[in-house]
Amino acid sequence: MAATLDLSPRSDGVRLPVHVRSRRSRAAIFGVTKLALVVAGVTGRRRGVEVAGLSMEDAPPRVATSGGAA
User: Fold this and answer.
1) Of 8, 24, 51, 53, which has the fewest CB atoms closer than 10 Å, so is most exposed?
2) Which residues, in sequence order, are bridge partners of residue 44?
3) How far, in Å, CA of 18 to CA of 41, rounded?
4) Distance between terminal CA atoms of the chain?
5) pLDDT digits (tens, 9 = 90+) for 6-26
6) Strands 13-22 and 36-41, how do they pair?
7) What totals of helices (H) and strands (E) does the chain contain, helices first?
8) What is the sign, positive or negative, of the torsion defined by CA atoms of 61, 41, 53, 10?
9) Rg (CA), the chain
10) Do 37 and 50 touch, CB atoms closer than 8 A?
11) What is the pTM of this model?
12) Which 3 state secondary structure label does DSSP give 2?
């Protein structure tokens, strides 16, 4: 499923979309659903994360194994 992520190359890494599950009791990575990495925490739902040193080819498998279940 990680292959469906809407990744964007950056000069020094990759940008990936993040969907935040707000008002959770703990901050955590829940997994990947649809087109975004799903995490818990803050109030706004749509975020983006830029990861330096991560290539477009390496990002999908790394995100898919980052932990949690969606």
Assistant:
1) 53
2) none
3) 11
4) 11
5) 888 988 888 888 888 777 777
6) parallel
7) 1, 5
8) positive
9) 12
10) no
11) 0.53
12) helix
